[in-house]
Every structure is written in C-alpha cells, then in structure tokens.
Amino acid sequence: MHRFLQLQRRRYRIIFLEQDNERLFNRAKLLNSAMRELCLNGSVPQFPKFNPYSALRFESFECFVFHDIDKLPKNKEIAYWCGPEPTQLVRAKLGVERKTMGEQPDVYYSKFMGGVTIFNRWNLILVNGASNNFRGWGGEDDDLYARLRLSGISVNRLPDEVGVYLTQEHRDDMNINSNKDYLLKRSLVIERLLTDGFAQVNYNLVNFIEFPLYTVLKLDV
C-alpha cells in the first residue's frame, strides 16, 4: 500500500487495529475506538475527554479509510481521497488464487458498505460512527449504511470494473453474526443512532506501538 499511496501523493498513516481479548470479533467497535484515539483531545467538545496516552501522538485526522487487511487494490485508478460524502471503494473481489486462473471478479450487492470505505471525519461524527453491538462477522457495515441514509448522507460508489480488490479467501470456520438480521431492523437502527456508537464506545487501549512504516493499536473492546 505504501507505493500505491505514494504514487497518489497522499499524506497518510497506516494503522493496524488488533482486538486484544478472546471475545468474538467486533469490527465496528474497533473502528469506533480507533476514531476516539485518533481525534485530538478536546477537538470534538460533545464527546468525553480522550485517552491522553495516544491522543497527542497524532495530527488531527480529517479523512479515514476503513480498510480490511485482506484486500489490496487491483487498479491504479482507485483514488484514496476524501470528498464531502463517503466513498465505497470495493465493488468487486478477486481471490488471489483465482487471479492466476484468469477468472472474473465477484461483484458485491449494490448497497454493500464494507471492505474498503472512505469517510471524512464529520460524516462519521454526524452518524455517531457505527453500532457497537455487532459481534462476529457481518451486519455492522449494513448498519452503517442505514445510519448514513437516515442522516441524509449519500454514498459514492466506484464503477464495478474499477473497484476491484484482490482478496484472501476467508476460512470456513469464521464466527458469523447470527443475530444480525434482528439487529438490522429499521426501528432498532433508528433507536441506536444516537445512543450506540462512537460517542458511547467503551474500550481500553492496551498498547500503542509505532514502527517505521505503520502503527499498531491494541484495543480491548
């Protein structure tokens, strides 16, 4: 990713988020926690004071790319930059193994909102980030899309033939969120919008490790 972003002349920092406990994976809660750590202390007055352990280590970020670790852009036309609205970069996936066999990418469903998505900070604050209630794989991205729509925020999407990402195939033993259909009921999404998200996330910063090319945040969420 470094060479890819440098060719686009981006000023950036790559940050890996690690869930440091034995509970089911919670992608949205990791993202909410990282947002709280990466916003400078006091920059968003309506939120509680941020943890000073890392807050002053970072400049004030205005653009966030939520990027699954198993995805890499296939096309150089995929631009990593923030506009006034969120942009869904991933439109189709191509398994690394299948690429060598000349197979065609699998296109995601039209409202897909995951994998690699770009937000400006104020869009995320307006929708209160993502719900912290989605443990296991699946559902949190659909909830985030619903929050954006309820808040009147449009989502830009790349053409299917441009937004292609090379992807490592997932294991069959992943813990799927069996409760996601219930959690995605419209009434519950509306109820959670202001009461469950970025402003309410509970977490502990376990470790903060800076390497020459990237940073690691270990979070107990």
From TrEMBL:
Residues 106-170 form the Galactosyltransferase C-terminal domain. Coiled coil: none annotated. PANTHER family: BETA-1,4-GALACTOSYLTRANSFERASE (PTHR19300), BETA-1,4-N-ACETYLGALACTOSAMINYLTRANSFERASE (PTHR19300:SF57). The keyword Transferase applies. SUPFAM superfamilies: Nucleotide-diphospho-sugar transferases. GO terms for molecular function: transferase activity. This is UDP-Gal betaGlcNAc beta. It holds the Pfam family Glyco_transf_7C. Keywords: Transferase.
